[in-house]
Amino acid sequence: MSAGGAAHNRRRPAPALLFSALLLLLVLATSAPHADFGRPATGTDDGMDLLRSASAASRVTAFGGVQAVSARSGGALVTEHAEVVHRPGEGTGYAEIAGRSTVKAGGLVVNASAPSLRPDGRILDALERNYHVTRSGSGTAADRTAKVVEARRRDGAVAGRFWIDERTSLPLRREIYGAAGEVTHSIRFVDLAVGTGAEPLPPVSGESGLWGSALTPRERTRLTEQGWTLPEQLSWNLPLVDARSSHGPDGPVVHLAYSDGLSVVSVFVQRGRLSPKSVGTTSGMRPVIENGGTIYVDDSGESRRMWESGGFVYTVLTDAPPTITGTVVEALPGPDGSGFWARVWRGFERLGSHIGDVAGR
C-alpha cells in the first residue's frame, strides 16, 4: 500500500458532532519551553463554570454567523472566514474554508475538522488539569458584551483567553498566546445571529459526518497486541481524548486525538509504506533526515509530519510550534532508516567519503 501525502482543498459543509476532533483543537498554545512548562499550573479555577456553561449553550442553542479564523504562518497571522450554522439535534454546518489540510490515507481522505469555538467536556477536563483558569473581567466580541476567562500556565503567563456571551453563554472568541504574549491562533465571531431566525443547515454533500467509528479500549488493546502503537498519552499534558477507526481498501486507519485542554493534536496510524512517488508529489512537503530515518515535513500553516516505521505510516496534523510538534513525534515510533530519501542521503554520504579518500591520496 502507498499512503499519499496531503493536499490543500476546500472544506465541504459537514455536521460537527465529534467535538474533540474540532479545531479548538488542532491548535496548541504556541510556547517555548519554560522552567515550569513541564508541570501543570496551580491555583483555584473560578472560570471553569463559565466554560462549562458555554459548552452546554453551544449544544442547545440555535445560532448562525461568520467566524474569522487566524493562524500564524511564516511569522504572520493568516485569516480565513467561515460561515457556521448550528441546529440542536441536527449538528453544525460549516461553509467552505480554503486551506485546510487533507491527508490521503489508504484510499481514504482524512480532513482536519473545521474550526470551532465549542468546548467539549473532555477538553475542559484537560484544561482544568493543566492550566489555572480564572475569570478576568468583561469585554466585547461580535458587538456583544462578554465575560472573559483566562487560562494561565504555571509561570503565570496567559496561554489562552475566552470571551463568553453574557446574554446567551455562547462562546464568542478564543485566542491562544505564545511565550512572548503574541497571538498564535484565534477564532472569533464577526457576525452572529442567535435563535430560530438563523439560517438552516447547509445541504450535506460529499464527505460528511463523523470520521469512522469510535474505538473502544478493548479494541485498542486488541490492535496494540497486533503491533499497533496507540499511546494513551503523548506527554504529561497530552492525554488521549478520542480514538476512531475507518476502513480503506488496504485496511483500517486509526485517528487518535490528544488534548492539552486548549487544543487537540491529531495522529493518524495505518499499515503500509510511504513511496517516494506518493509523498514526493505532495504539495509543500519535503523530506528531512532524522536519526537515520526520513520524516516528510510541511510547516506552512498547519504543521504536518509523515513517516513510516515498522510497517506502519504515522501522520501528525497540528498548528503547534516545532517544540511541541517535536515532542509529539518523539513520543511515537521513530522513522525507519530504509526510506527512499534516507537511502539517497546515505548514497551521498558514501560518495562524499569516496571523494575524500581520492582527494587525500
TrEMBL record:
Keywords: Signal. The keyword Signal applies. This is Sigma-E factor negative regulatory protein RseB. Residues 124-196 form the MucB/RseB N-terminal domain. One of its GO terms (cellular component) is outer membrane-bounded periplasmic space. It holds the Pfam family MucB_RseB. Residues 1-35 form the signal peptide. InterPro entries: MucB/RseB_C_sf, MucB/RseB_N, MucB_RseB. Transmembrane segments: none annotated. One of its GO terms (biological process) is regulation of polysaccharide biosynthetic process. GO terms for molecular function: antisigma factor binding. PANTHER family: PTHR38782, SIGMA-E FACTOR REGULATORY PROTEIN RSEB (PTHR38782:SF1).
